[in-house]
Amino acid sequence: MRLALKHSRPAAPVQLVRPLHESPAAVYLASLGSERSRITQLDRLNKLAEVMSQGAHDAVSLPWERLTYVHTQTLRTALAESISPKTGQPYSPSYINALLATLRAVLKEAWRLGLISEEHRARACDLKPVSGATLPAGRSLTIGEKQALSAVCQSDPGPAGPRDASIFVLGMTCGLRRAEMAALDLEDYDRETGELRVRRGKGRKARLVHVSTGCRAALDDWLHERGDVTGPLLCPVNRGGNITPRRISDHVVFVVCRKRAEQAGIQPFSPHDMRRTFIGDLLDAGADISVAQQLAGHASVSTTQGYDRRPEEKKREAAGLLHFPYVARRVPGTPNTNRGEDNE
Fold first, then answer.
1. Considering 121, 146, 177, 276, which one is annotated as catalytic?
2. Which of 7, 93, 119, 270 qualifies as a FRET site for 195, CA 20 to 30 Å off?
3. Is 177 a catalytic residue?
4. Of the CATH numbers 3.40.50.970, 3.40.50.1820, 3.10.20.30, 1.10.443.10, which one belongs to the domain with range 143-311?
5. CA 40 → CA 33, 47, 149, 303, distances in Å?
6. For the segment 99-145, what is each residue's pLDDT rounded down to a tens digit?
7. Which of 120, 146, 202, 226 is labelled catalytic?
8. Is 246 an annotated catalytic residue?
9. Burial class (CB in 10 A: 0-12, 13-18, 19+), 85
10. Global pTM?
11. Can 202 be counted among the known catalytic residues?
């Protein structure tokens, strides 16, 4: 299903006809607290604009104030029936609901700008969430995988070894996002107490986390290589082993995960998988879920619950209680010598 704001003739190239400060989308993007959030939301706004105008408008030029309940409800249906060009699968309910949340936020800006009435906004935003559930993305790392990663970092004689081990410590024992790692300064880490101040967390929310005693060795080794000069905590290391006194990009964290996973002979994992491992390990160890929420920097405890592995363990244990009395004909792993024809 396609929804176009113009029905009388094929869409023509659209020129921006009003100042940026009068565009609800531009004002909404300017209100966001980080560049990463602006990039994410701009991508979502462009997706919405593309679907609603059949490619005639982008996020800024779309006349959001003209959207009525008919438009937004048709948009919801169109998204629910759409196929992702990246995966070839339907869009997940969580992604569609995130798009609808962005839509509501822009319509609220249109109301704040005086472009629509409160009744108009309320009607256009009166959309039910798309229901459904998908399996969790990503994975948690096992203790064996952590040991393999630690081994490859310790075998690296250059400063990249302890730096990369520090990245894994910050991700899997402190739960930092990769952008939060890149934003750390030397002064944020107290080497005596192990306290680490995350000053630039998601949503501009600062929090205090703690590096456990057993995990400080990696950071201590890195700081010995780095030195005590003020500045970013994590710095680039070139192929010659030279440290550049500047901040790493958050993409470096992604590259380190892929590189060290290959060296360790384990399956690839993402920076977010380190957070998933951190939260899951905390809850498995008996930590209170509200404490895990605070350490992870989640705005809602329901977000933290999505990382809880314990329900799956309970289901696995329950499945192990069931049995079907079938005896294998051969030992698993032995070659199949039966060359007879298959039964129809």
1. 177
2. 270
3. yes
4. 1.10.443.10
5. 12, 11, 31, 19
6. 999 999 999 999 999 999 999 999 999 999 988 766 667 899 999 99
7. 202
8. no
9. exposed
10. 0.70
11. yes
